[in-house]
Design goal:
about 15% strand; about 325 residues; disordered N terminus; alpha/beta; TIM Barrel; disordered C terminus; 8-stranded mixed beta sheet; globular
Length: about 325
């Protein structure tokens, strides 16, 4: 793809150290099924969505073993809701055996509640290497529940407080929904979210995501995806964006297709798009440059908010 006959779309090569690929982050999309059906979910996850089947411990272990050969540092589990996977706890244990840090992204509702004691016990034994990233769309109950369902705000907040009081303080992750119709700055929104938990005697970290991805369920809420710019190297250089900080330069994501094939993608935002299928192994994926042509590359990962941008692993 070209912009004006001269500038080609920027591509990202995978990082190398001493001429060998070095893998920082490895994401597992364990499956698209979720106990909730959030109206902004970029995967369109729901109790009946099986577009991405559940991965097994054996399948996860295969990529953990391969990742270890390339210096794997941080493993992430996402979905769908990871705690719906029957093997999530042994998966977390396996990841802790093979990586320095492990993070699981969760809506912190019924599935986590059922596994709470075992998950906290594992986190304590990990001595801080296992963390929980909890999704909370707003500090106002009605605004959160309008997206995730009645009663979900109370359950999520209560479980996050329990995690913090158990010595496993979660990272509260809020989408850009918190800014919808809200004149507050990012700093003010972060303060309100932290204050929500401080009132319960819990100290938490807050991470604000830069945008709501125009994919999946979100497409039903808008007229259609906005036209996005082509990201050339000159365009990125104009706001001093270093594409080497993007996840596709230092990380990979693994998913299972509907036909059962395990495939590697540049990041957990992009799934089931053949042009971004990088192969069936990590080693194969490292040899393939990633072209920044997906709409999320411009609207989410390469937003001009500073030299590191706003990629998922920022």
């Amino acid at each position: 793809m070209e912009t004006d006959g001269r500038q080609k779309t920027a591509v990202v090569d995978f990082q190398r150290v001493a001429n060998e690929p070095r893998l920082d982050d490895l994401w597992f999309l364990l499956g698209s099924k979720c106990n909730l059906a959030c109206i902004h979910c970029y995967v369109g996850s729901s109790p009946t969505n099986d577009i991405l089947p559940q991965m097994t411990l054996m399948e996860v272990q295969r990529f953990l073993d391969e990742g270890a050969r390339f210096g794997l540092s941080h493993v992430y589990f996402t979905g769908g809701e990871p705690f719906l996977n029957k093997e999530i706890l042994p998966m977390l244990e396996a990841a802790l055996d093979g990586a320095r840090r492990v993070t699981v992204l969760t809506n912190a509702t019924k599935p986590l509640e059922k596994a709470f004691d075992a998950a906290v016990s594992l986190a304590r034994r990990s001595e801080g290497r296992l963390s929980f990233r909890v999704s909370l769309d707003h500090y106002v109950e009605a605004r959160h529940d309008a997206i995730r369902g009645k009663g979900q705000f109370h359950l999520t907040v209560s479980l996050a407080v329990r995690l913090a009081k158990a010595g496993v303080p979660p990272i509260i992750t809020a989408t850009a929904e918190v800014f919808r119709g809200n004149p507050m700055s990012s700093a003010q929104c972060e303060s309100r979210l932290r204050g929500l938990f401080a009132e319960e005697g819990a100290d938490v970290e807050v991470k604000l995501l830069p945008a709501v991805l125009e994919m999946g369920s979100q497409l039903l809420r808008i007229d259609g995806p906005k036209e996005t710019p082509v990201l050339s190297d000159d365009h990125l250089a104009s706001f001093r964006f270093d594409k080497r900080t993007l996840m596709c330069a230092n990380g990979r994501s693994v998913l299972k297709r509907a036909d059962g094939a395990l495939r590697v993608y540049p990041c957990p935002i992009i799934y089931e798009v053949p042009a971004f299928d990088l192969g069936g192994s990590l080693a194969e994926s490292f040899g393939r440059a990633v072209s920044l042509t997906h709409p999320a590359c411009a609207t989410y990962c390469c937003r001009a908010t500073g030299p590191r941008g706003t990629c998922t692993n920022a």
